[in-house]
């Protein structure tokens, strides 16, 4: 029988902002109750010292070029921090299957790369659909840093993405730069500061030709009241 193992670890290496790390919501007790309810066999919750003691801060890794765009462009050192810890967790747990969400799609692609390059694809990476609140706002620990009214405002980003998707789908002659500006401006009026809103391919983050809408994805990061989502 396969055993279900969940790791809980707030990774200090992936935070490019120390204040963000210190204020990051921690809900260990409620997390454990959820794991018990779902009959998880094992919780691996190491201390920082246990995980970080063998991490070589100076060791360099050859990350794919696409890790330098989107979040990689705006969060210096973030993906290298994720890379080191996920690789370490894989080495300790040695899973046969691992589950990661599509909400951070760039991270998901990097984890598939880790499995391929360092574990000979022996770890099957399963992509999990983004879970959303009723408003459409993607579920995230950081949502706990928002008031209810701020959450309502943040949900407009999802509505804007749906609208943008429709505009691209129904008009083959779309001008993405114009659509992008219109979306960013309308969200800005609501107090949402867009960090990036890009239309790229899902397989390698390249810019697709207009006559090929296969595997197109919209990528967005934004701030609301100083909280990055």
Structure description:
With 229 residues, this protein is an alpha/beta fold. Helix content is 40%, strand content 16%. The chain contains nine helices and seven strands, in the order βααβαααβαβαααβββ. The chain has helices spanning 18-23, 28-37, 48-52, 71-74, 78-93, 105-119, 148-154, 156-170, 176-189, and strands spanning 5-7, 42-44, 97-101, 124-128, 193-201, 216-224, 227-228. The strands form three sheets. The protein has a three-stranded antiparallel sheet, covered by helices on one side. A two-stranded parallel sheet has the order 1-2. It starts with a strand and ends with a strand. The mean pLDDT is 92.
Keywords:
229 residues; two-stranded parallel ribbon
